[in-house]
Amino acid sequence: MAHAARESGLFALRVPTVGTPEVAEALAARTPDLGVVVAFGQFIPKHIRELPTLGYCINGHASLLPRWRGAAPIAHAILAGDTRTGVTLMRLEREMDAGPVASQRAIEITSEETTGELSERLAKLTAEMVAEAVHEIAAGHTHWTPQSTEGVLLAPKLDREQSRLDFRESAESLVRRVRAFSPSPGATVEWGDQALRIHSARAEPGPVDTAPGTVSLGGDSGLRIATRDGWFAPRVLQRPGRRPLEAPAFLRGHPIPDGARFKPAPADG
């Protein structure tokens, strides 16, 4: 982004920490009217938030606030099985993602959409909304609405441990986990001494008469795994250091015996 800005003849400042006096001095020298923040992972202190002539910054957040405040709203929406999300344009304040709202737009989450795919759609929507908001603010037409104190949910940053698949969950929830962790870091399952990465999967309904994690060969994908409720069918798998393969091709090169059992995820603590 900084490279694109410089190519367009725009000022670009890249710093490890935004709250230092040097950063404040550099920004103040540009005499900005308004600050715009999108997908920025640092806390922005008051003297930076209020530095613009208008006295505030705006933020484009990828959720329908107050639902999913925090660093990973897109992945959390998928994990929770939400069918809608969107973008909220708000004023930046000390409390995380809690500022008053100028505008909000919703979109549907498709049944197979991943975090990466949904992020692209939301990024385009955010750009449109920020551009519109800047014009509205300049014209003095913006109305700020306080966020509701009801329905607040937090979306903290996800870690690799949360990407591990535990077949004691339902097939539907496991497929959502695969989607939420795609493309990075990818959902994983232990097989022997390796961690297989699952890039795509689907849930197959039907009675399960075997222990969660047990392999059943056959069906459309050639591989399905018993869960607490229904069957989990990986579509694309990847061994460490190798390229992703469709399930039938993976099984030809790396057979998984019928009736074998994947390890359950370790208990917390």
Detailed description of the structure:
- With 269 residues, the chain is of the alpha+beta class.
- It folds into two domains: 2-26 and 33-139, 3-Layer(aba) Sandwich (Rossmann fold); 160-253, Roll (Methionyl-tRNA Fmet Formyltransferase, Chain A, domain 2).
- Helix content is 25%, strand content 22%.
- The chain is built from seven helices and ten strands.
- Strands 5, 6, 7, 8, 9 and 10 form a six-stranded antiparallel beta sheet that branches.
- Helix 4 (73-79) runs antiparallel to helix 6 (171-180).
- The mean pLDDT is 92.
Number of extended strands: 10
Oligomeric state of the chains in view:
single chain
CATH class of the largest domain: Alpha Beta
Radius of gyration: 23 Å
CATH fourth-tier homologous superfamily of the largest domain: Formyl transferase, N-terminal domain
Shape: elongated
Helix content: 10-25%
Stretches with pLDDT under 50, minimum 5 residues: none
Number of helices: 7
Largest sheet geometry: 6 strands, antiparallel
